[in-house]
Each structure stands twice: as structure tokens, then as C-alpha cells.
Amino acid sequence: MTDEIYDLKDQEKTPQTKHEWDSTHSGLLVGIVFIMAGAVLLLGRWTDFQLLDNWWALFILIPAFSSLGRAMHIYKRRGRLGHEGGGALTGGLIILGVALTFLFGLSWSYFWPFILIIVGISSLIQAKA
Description:
With about 130 residues, this protein is an all-alpha fold. The protein folds into 2 domains: about 20-50; about 55-129, no CATH class. It has helices spanning about 1-15, 25-45, 60-80, 80-105, 110-129.
């Protein structure tokens, strides 16, 4: 409820302007990422070049970066994370950890303690909101 009140107050104070990072820029970024991924995969087919064994885990990074970007946007807009931003940050960090675990072939036994730490920090952030 308080997050919604802060949103309304922010809308009253600031005139509606176009954000620096809009859907056009994110579309360009997604396009460049897909072109680079395709080029690396073709290079791997035509030569012995192998960048990553678990290349498919790169696609897990898309929702991770999206969630982290949302948390950053909320923080920039409100000056704090709050419940919504804390949830986006927590989700993004957990998804990022899963992607890195797959990409680098790490043991899950190292990742589980980080999940507990991330959830604990998130609880502290959201309790402070």
C-alpha cells in the first residue's frame, strides 16, 4: 500500500517525460544479444571454437537481468527498494545464481547457502520498508 502511495506522489511531483531507457533501447539490446549468440553458435559449428559447454544457460540470464533491471528502476524512481523492489532483487539474484551454476558447472552444494543469504537480506530490506 505504501509503495502505491509513493508511486502516486512521484507522479504528482514529476512531469511525464520519456525515460532514458525505453522499449526501443531494450529491443536493440535483445536483438544484439540474439545476433551475438547466433554468431557464437555458428562459429562453434564451423570451427572447433567452444565458448561454453552449457550455452543454453545464457537464456536463463534474460529473466535475471530483467528482474535486476526492474529492481534498479524502482530504486531510482523511489529512492528505496520497498517490497516490490526487494522481491525483484531477490528473484533476480536467485535466477542469476542458477544461471551461473549451470554456465560454469558449479556444484549445487555451494549455491544453496547463497540462496539462504539472499532470502535473509531480502527479508531485512522488506522489513525496513
